[in-house]
Amino acid sequence: MPEGVPSGLAVGVEALMTEYETEPVHVLHVRDLAVSLFDDLQFLHRCGPLDRAILDAASCLHDIGWTVTQPDGKGHHKESARLIREHAWTEVPPAVVAMVSLVARYHRKSIPSEADHEAFAERSADERRRIRWLAGLLRIADGLDRRHIQATQHVRAACIEGTVRIVASGVDGLEAEVLGARKKADLLAVATGLKIEVEAEG
Q1: Number of structural domains, the chain?
Q2: What is the domain-level CATH number for residue 145?
Q3: Do residues 108 and 79 touch, judged by C-beta distance below 8 A?
Q4: CA 60 to CA 21: how far, in whole Å?
């Protein structure tokens, strides 16, 4: 466990996934894509090991709300956040739980708003910056597995002339995955202040 990362975080994630997650292959793949983007762009976001662990946890838990929003999954992002908040975490500070829940909550639909979202507005300015970054990366990663078939096998990111360029590689053309990621690039654009380009390697 990296220094500064609560020992109970992985235990709580495993417990929540065991109880609620019905597509573990999808969320674990999204986790892998998200942390890969995190690592590639570390020189931009300058987040540390705790933030990487928060992104890992939120990626694993972003869809657990599906279980309580069947059959259509409407609002499942908010339910995922609620289940994370209400879980009986052991040896995980409340601030970390709040970060995980908010990163998971913003994996889809509206982006964080200080004016409209009280739970987000309550966080410190630094926490809000980190949430935007982490949720922005999660949104892209989730879009890159839009069909839940793990067609995107690898992703890499770089900043070139004021543009964050994300390149996905894999199988089956990746048209749906690239489109999904482009549609969810809005928050990462806010977090970076830069243009976001997503494309398939070719």
Answers
A1: 1
A2: 1.10.3210.10
A3: no
A4: 9
State the Cα–Cα distance between residues 105 and 198, nearest whole angstrom.
Answer: 23
Contact 164, 195 (CB under 8 A): yes
Maximum CA extent, the chain? 46
What's the predicted TM-score (pTM) here? 0.96
Question: Is residue 132 in some structural domain?
Answer: yes
pLDDT digits (tens, 9 = 90+) for 149-182: 999 999 999 999 999 999 999 987 899 999 999 9
Query: CA-CA distance, 92 to 98, in Å (whole number)?
Result: 10
> Measured between alpha carbons, how far is 150 from 158 in angstroms, rounded to an integer?
22
Residue 187 lies in a domain: no
Alpha helices in the chain (DSSP H): 8-20, 24-40, 42-45, 49-61, 76-86, 94-105, 118-121, 125-143, 175-183, 186-192
Task: Name the residue range of residue 100's domain.
Answer: 8-150
Question: CA dihedral in degrees (58, 64, 83, 47; nearest 10)?
Answer: 0
The angle formed by the CA atoms of residues 37, 40 and 44, to the nearest 5 degrees, is: 100
Nearest to 56 by CA among 42, 38, 72, 75: 38
